[in-house]
Write a structure and sequence with these properties.
By secondary structure, the chain is mostly helical. Helices cover 78% and strands 0% of the residues. The chain is elongated and about 170 Å long.
Length: 606
């Protein structure tokens, strides 16, 4: 006679677990960006590229570049923190946002996400308090999630009647309603109200197939319903629920095992052979398959077929022994870092990972939130390490750029000094002063020829030379005197326009000299201050490089800690499997020995 293993309760617990549907960090964002920094942040955020998004957002916050979107930015910042399971930081951001004067839409979202922070931190009571503060401005895309979160918080507080009232009062759309019913059914079953709980599980389990995600939920509800009915002695009802689980479902092996136990509970061991035989041919790594290796020969023994029972017991012993060896190899592989390498997609030496069994053992564990969080945390830390490596390379590039600027400054320093000569500038200033004095004399004396052009002055000089050389009264002298008069007349006629133009040119020259003096001062200041700026930049680069090294070390420590946590979870799972398989092996050996004894007694008895 075989005793049932603890796997039945394990399967029932796995099938009847509360579900939490993950949601994106932020559901609503403005359709237009009025701040450039906000637009850049959204560019990264909507691509789920959180590290550049949070980096740009924090820089923009430090530089006060979010004039029009400060509240939305805080909401996104808290959402990214929540996405990374940084509950304390996320809670601080949302609480600070709520302490301000945010718009009702922003405030309602902040209250919702603060409730999520508290719920995921194991504080369902404060989560309910935050949910109760939500007004009527919560975006439509978050309303179903709000009531689902409220129902789950009430279930955690062992208040299933209130959770049922919430789900009944608010018709959740699509799958949210089914998830709510499933969670409520499980909670009622756990709180020793199986009749009410099975009613909600039946609603989900009997729903019309959708060929989508809800089919998996339907299978899970039927599994939980079947084992609940089996525990209460309703074998027929359990069989009906378990038969609705699809054969290609992730829960098919557990359903087949339960269906066999339902048949055996009714004493119909022949019927139990059907699901157990199907199950025994499936993957031997599956826990339900491992139990079926004991259940199948037990059924044959009850049907009076000891020979077939012995054959199946021998097969079970061989498979269990092999499984224990593989489990130990899996534990050794995890301890050597293979699981961490598999999570990061690389072997420690950089070569592709060969096929390994230990990840297959962890399928059930991977469904747990804490294991998924550990995996994601390790990957996030690896991505952060790569990001810091890139920034460290940037520090080297900054050093090279600074060295190039220093060399360029040194090579052009002599040229700058030559072009920015104070003596040359003073000479120009003296010439400007002389021109001002001369123009004042011309204005005072009405000296029109003082404003004559160079050609006119040359012509006047030639005419004067002709007059001096020609004899008095000669035609040449009279002609030269006449032309001189014409020249003077023409110049004198334009005296006032020429005087205004000279004034304008003088003022232009004065402004140019002022600008030249300021430029010279800037050149001298740059000449004196540029080495100090180079030193300052160099110090900033060195400081940033040192901070990067500290951050890289912190990331390395956190990665080792996260990898250790991941490995401890996996080893605990495989160790639990070892204990279970060892128990199965002991039962199989005992049953095999008992079968041999019965066969021996049958031979000696007449």
């Amino acid at each position: 006679m075989i005793r049932r293993s603890p796997l039945l309760s394990l399967v029932a617990a796995a099938g009847a677990a509360l579900l939490c549907v993950p949601t994106p960090a932020i559901q609503a964002a403005p359709s237009a960006a009025r701040d450039l920094a906000w637009g850049e942040t959204l560019f990264y955020f909507f691509q789920r590229d959180n590290v550049p998004a949070i980096t740009r957002l924090l820089v923009a916050r430090q530089r006060v570049e979010l004039e029009h979107h400060a509240d939305e930015a805080e909401l996104v910042l808290g959402g990214i923190y929540l996405d990374y399971n940084m509950h304390r930081h996320a809670g601080e951001v949302f609480e600070t946002l709520l302490a301000g004067n945010a718009k009702p839409t922003i405030r309602d979202q902040a209250w919702y996400y603060l409730a999520r922070v508290r719920y995921e931190s194991g504080l369902p009571g404060p989560a309910l308090d935050a949910l109760g503060r939500i007004g009527n401005k919560l975006p439509r895309s978050l309303r179903a999630e709000r009531f689902d979160l409220e129902a789950r918080a009430l279930l955690q507080l062992d208040r299933p009647a209130e959770a049922a009232a919430v789900l009944a009062a608010h018709e959740l759309p699509g799958g949210w309603r089914d998830y709510g019913w499933y969670n409520l059914g499980v909670a009622l079953v756990r709180s020793e109200q199986p009749d009410q709980g099975e009613e909600y599980l039946e609603r989900v389990g009997s729903a019309k197939p959708t060929k989508g995600e809800l089919d998996v939920l339907r299978d899970r509800a039927n599994l939980a319903l079947g084992f609940s009915r089996l525990a209460s002695g309703d074998a027929d009802g359990a069989r009906a629920a378990l038969d609705r689980v699809r054969l290609d479902s992730p829960y098919a092996t557990r359903a087949l095992l339960g269906a066999g136990w339902a048949d055996s509970t009714r004493g119909d061991y022949k019927a139990a052979l059907g699901p157990w035989t199907e199950l025994a041919e499936r993957d031997p790594l599956d826990s339900a398959v491992q139990e079926s290796l004991l259940a199948l020969p037990f059924a044959y023994a009850e049907l009076g077929a000891p020979g077939r029972a012995v054959g199946h017991y021998e097969r079970a012993v061989d498979l269990y022994e092999t499984e224990l060896l593989r489990l130990q190899e899996g534990i050794d592989g995890i301890q050597s870092g293979r699981l961490t390498a598999a999570v990061l997609h690389l072997d420690p030496d950089g070569s592709p990972l060969p096929a390994a069994d230990e990840p297959r053992y962890l399928y059930s564990l991977m469904a747990e939130h804490r294991f998924r969080s550990a995996v994601r945390g390790l990957r996030d830390l690896d991505a952060m390490d790569e990001l810091l490596d890139g920034w460290a390379d940037s520090m080297e590039a900054f050093d090279d750029m600074l060295a190039a600027h220093r060399q360029r400054f040194a090579s052009r320093r002599e040229l700058i000094n030559a072009s920015a000569d104070q003596q040359r500038l003073q000479g120009l200033q003296d010439a400007q002063d002389a021109a001002r004095i001369e123009l004042a004399r011309i204005r005072e004396q009405g000296d029109a020829m003082g404003l004559a052009s160079q050609d006119e002055q040359q012509l006047a000089a030639r005419l004067a030379a002709v007059r001096e050389q020609a004899a008095p009264g000669s035609p040449e002298r009279r002609r030269a005197e006449f032309l001189s008069g014409v020249l003077y007349w023409n110049v004198n006629a334009d005296f006032l326009p020429r005087l205004r133009a000279a004034d304008k040119n003088l003022k232009t020259g004065e402004r140019a000299l002022v600008e030249a003096g300021a430029s010279l001062q800037r050149v001298r200041s740059a000449e004196a201050g540029e080495p100090a700026r180079f030193t300052e930049f160099s110090a900033r680069i060195d400081s940033s490089a040192a901070r990067l090294e500290i951050l890289r070390e912190r990331v390395a420590v956190a990665s080792r800690r996260q990898a250790a946590e991941l490995e401890s979870l996996a080893i605990a799972e495989l160790t639990a499997r070892q204990r279970r398989v060892t128990a199965y092996l002991g039962q199989a050996r005992y049953a095999l020995a008992a079968s041999y004894d019965r066969a021996a007694l049958a031979e000696v008895q007449p």
